[in-house]
Design brief:
Length: 192
């Protein structure tokens, strides 16, 4: 049933706008049927990423059997990472290489700190479970003892607590003149 559902879902034509919602419904149902996550997590994750998934799917060079093999394993199809891929480059010639010109001696120096993908979790709870069935842990009631989230953060399926990022930025203010903060995605735990 898993493989059949995957093949069926990937044979839907993804190019048209109404199909984004339809693909989202199919993906959410498939996520739940395959027990990839709790129903609420499946639904919210699909809502967050369905447009990106449909765009990637519409532009993909993988056939349904290859995609299902990649997603669900060899029982559902064959995907070979070493297979030959053909990438057609445009006929536009490359621009000439212009080596950078170094600044003159004594020119002012500027220090820039560029921070990206800090993954702040506003629901981070020190002492909570580091391991959990959800995509993002270190939330909820404190447990204490081994396997609990640290004050400054924890490895695993945990994003950072706000006080860690605040401490980082306070330290950076005294160390670096200019900084830039960039984020490409909302917090991963948007299903809650």
């Amino acid at each position: 049933p898993r493989c059949h559902g995957c093949h069926r879902a990937l044979t839907l034509p993804p190019q048209t706008e109404p199909n984004v919602a339809r693909v989202g419904r199919v993906a959410s149902r498939l996520c739940q049927e395959l027990r990839l996550a709790r129903p609420a997590v499946c639904q919210q994750a699909v809502e967050l990423f369905q447009r990106d998934v449909v765009t990637a799917w519409a532009r993909s060079v993988l056939r349904p059997g290859e995609a299902c093999g990649l997603l669900l394993g060899q029982r559902c199809g064959h995907w070979d990472i070493l297979a030959d891929w053909n990438l057609t480059m445009p006929g536009t010639p490359k621009p000439p290489v212009r080596p950078p010109v170094p600044p003159p001696p004594g020119a002012p120096v500027e220090h820039i700190l560029f921070l990206t993908d800090l993954h702040w979790d506003r629901q981070y709870q020190p002492g909570s479970a580091v391991a959990c069935p959800d995509p993002l842990c270190c939330r909820g009631e404190p447990l204490g003892g081994p396997g609990s989230a640290g004050f400054w953060g924890s490895y695993g399926k945990c994003d950072l607590p706000l006080h860690t990022i605040e401490a980082l930025l306070e330290h950076a203010v005294g160390t670096v003149a200019n900084g830039s903060l960039a984020s490409s995605r909302p917090v991963v735990g948007s299903w809650q």
